[in-house]
Write a structure and sequence with these properties.
This is succinate dehydrogenase. By secondary structure, the protein is α+β, with helices and mostly antiparallel strands. The protein contains 17 helices and 19 strands. Helix content is about 40%, strand content about 15%.
Length: about 650
């Protein structure tokens, strides 16, 4: 089946990475000082890679479109980061993290990459503690853990509800140290518009200074993309509004395969849409499912307040359907279950597109524990709720405050209302075991690649992958490539390949400016998002996907004839930035629908309505679709499918069950 080489090392799964590190070609320190590496993106994956490669001695240039690396969307991650340290002595291990990740991804991930991720996970925690990241600790001073979906152990390390922010500050500090030493050149407010290829290898980028509009050429012996996911193709998502696919898409158009684009993660615990005025959605951390119980009324169209619905009239549907995992089933399972209840008429709130996340039971439980610790072994309910609220506030206070500020409701007194929303994209640029794309010298890390999560990412694994790639994987694998490039001198940026790439980028900018149509960029983005959510969102079917492809093609033609971008290209122009990004989203949206239409099965976040069990669960077709779909861009927005066969030699493939 495979017609592409994933370059997985030979040998036993448990020893592949160890043997690889012991035998990989190296670059000696004096040669590292002559080798230039470009890092695009400064989130957890990009910042950790830039800091580590600079620490190793390479000359690094790091680019981000924000005004500071601290603004990267990694800062928005809330709940935690996974690692197989077994601090809770509850049976965790490297193998169990590996197994949970493969199973959670519905058996659509590459075994070798996932096992490596599980192996290095413990190192990440040690690295972050050494950097001073204030991870939560127990009373005795040991690092604390909590549970996340898809597991039956506590392996998630956290810093209240701001884990991403604290981890990013750790990586940022490491990066700033290298900047201060002159080993990293930092280019903020720069956007990559093209990859430059010379003799088939990635040799640099074209970037636009977003403040002045100036177009710049930058050489690198290798280029690394750590630019995040493409969830904003749906317009409304939990992603930062600036998050985009442009860097990855430009690389795709230069020959980098795009893998599994239809694998989109819908997060079950988001604040519901409140109206057409919204430009993004807000995530409530999955960590809340540790102590919050999810329910809907047993009666259809029940308009009573949550406090007025007695316990025996509540349907704790996740606990009912999945008793072994309860409220901690994986995100795709929880999201579809919420949609099913709302579609059946049991939704709550004004829109009826929401379910309750209720903390009352565990608040009272924590209160009893606190009262008992104080010697009160028979506390009244008021005391339990008062003491328990203090515990909940300590664990989740910033998340509760955020919910209150957005909704105007007090979640300590009334259950939160939540509904699924687009959150993470498991698809991305195809990479081999070395994290290299199908373009030699072009690497991709973190959410921007497809490699570790299969068809569904387990919660708290995004931060783990981003830091694993940047701190512990790429520094080894990129050296194997660069060891053969030490004789290559820096290529002048007046080389014809740089000139051609710049002309390509400038041509697109000028075209967008000169269309002078009648409709705004946001007009087209919203229409694209509506198509994608309705026909390639939480559920898809053949009819809808065929319609979506035709609608997106028509939208693309209309965009390029009627979009209005005010201003000029040689100045600060945020509408021009958005226009370029939306143009790329439109092309990506078509590929996502093509990929979803081609995959005649349901798996993880890809739910084809024609392929489901009698109980409404995803129905895989392992005989025909146990492969990575790697798409090659062809002239005229056409795509050719390549397949990487997925072989499972260490895990028995089975129908997922969380019951």
């Amino acid at each position: 089946m495979s017609d592409i080489n994933s370059n997985i090392p030979e040998g036993e799964l448990t020893s592949k990475w160890t043997k690889y590190k012991s035998s990989v070609p190296l670059v000696n320190p004096s040669n590292k000082r002559t080798i230039e590496v470009i890092i695009v993106g400064s989130g957890l994956a990009g910042a950790s890679a830039a800091a580590t490669l600079a620490e190793m001695g390479y000359k690094v240039k790091c680019f981000c479109f924000q005004d500071s690396p601290r603004r990267a969307h990694s800062i928005a991650a809330q709940g935690g980061i996974n690692a197989a340290k077994n601090y809770q002595n509850d049976g965790d291990s490297v193998y169990r993290l590996f197994y949970d990740t493969i199973k959670g991804g519905d058996y659509r991930a590459r075994e070798a990459n996932v096992h490596r991720l599980a192996e290095v996970s413990a190192n990440i925690i040690d690295q972050c503690v050494a950097q001073g990241v204030p991870l939560a600790r127990e009373y005795g001073g040991l690092l604390d853990n909590r549970s996340f979906g898809g597991t039956q152990v506590q392996r998630t390390f956290y810093a209240a509800g701001q884990t991403g922010q604290q981890l990013l500050l750790g990586a940022y500090s490491a990066l700033e140290r290298q900047i201060g030493m002159g080993k990293v050149e930092m280019y903020t407010r720069h956007e990559m518009l093209e990859v430059v290829k010379i003799d088939g290898k990635a040799r640099g980028i074209i970037a636009r200074n977003l403040i002045t509009g100036e177009i710049e050429r930058h050489f690198g012996h290798a280029v690394v993309l750590g630019t995040g996911g493409y969830g904003n193709v749906f317009y409304l998502s939990t992603n930062a509004m600036g998050s985009n696919v442009t860097a990855a898409w430009k690389a795709h158009k230069q020959g980098a395969y795009f893998a599994n684009p239809c694998y989109t993660q819908i997060h079950p615990t988001c604040i519901p849409v409140s109206g057409d005025h919204q430009s993004k959605l807000t995530l409530m951390s999955e960590s809340l499912r540790n102590d919050g119980r999810i329910w809907v009324p047993k009666k259809k169209d029940d308009n009573r307040k949550a406090s007025e619905i007695p316990e025996d009239e509540r349907d704790y549907y996740l606990e009912r359907r999945y008793p072994a995992f309860g409220n901690l089933v994986p995100r795709d399972v929880a999201s579809r279950a919420a949609k099913e209840r709302c579609d059946a008429g049991y939704g709550v709130g004004a829109s009826k597109l929401a379910v309750y996340l209720d903390f009352k039971a565990n608040t009272e439980r924590y209160g009893k524990i606190e009262a008992s610790k104080a010697g009160n072994h028979n506390p009244d309910k008021e005391t339990c709720m008062r003491l328990g609220t203090a515990v909940i506030k300590e664990k989740y206070g910033n998340l509760f405050d955020m919910y209150a500020q957005i909704t105007g409701e007090n979640p300590y007194e009334t259950p939160m209302r939540i509904y699924p929303a687009v959150h993470y994209t498991m698809g991305g640029l195809w990479v081999d075991y070395n994290l290299m794309t199908s373009v030699p010298g072009l690497y991709c890390t973190g959410e921007a690649n497809f490699s570790d999560h299969g068809a569904n990412r387990l919660g708290a694994s995004a931060l783990m992958q981003g830091l694993a790639d940047g701190y512990f994987v790429l520094p080894y694998t990129i050296g194997a490539y660069l060891s053969k490039e030490i004789s290559v001198k820096a290529i002048p940026t007046d080389h014809p390949a740089f000139v051609e790439a710049e002309e390509r980028a400038v041509g697109i900018l000028n075209t967008l400016i000169n269309i002078k149509g009648t409709k705004s960029v946001d007009h087209f983005h919203k229409r694209l998002g509506h198509i994608m959510w309705e026909k390639c969102g939480m559920a898809r079917n053949e009819k809808g996907l065929n319609e979506a492809i035709q609608e997106i093609r028509a939208l693309r033609a209309e965009f390029w004839s009627d979009v209005r971008v005010p201003g000029t290209a040689d100045e600060l122009n945020t509408e021009l930035e958005k226009a370029g990004r939306v143009a790329d989203f439109i092309e990506l949206g078509e590929l996502m629908c093509i990929d979803a239409l081609n995959r005649n099965e349901s798996c993880g976040g890809h739910f084809r309505e024609e392929y489901q069990t009698e109980e409404g669960e995803a129905l895989r077709d392992d005989e025909n679709y146990a492969y990575v779909a790697a798409w090659e861009f062809k002239e005229g927005v056409n795509f050719e499918l390549h397949k990487e066969e997925l072989k499972f030699e260490n895990i028995k493939v089975a129908q997922r069950s969380y019951k």
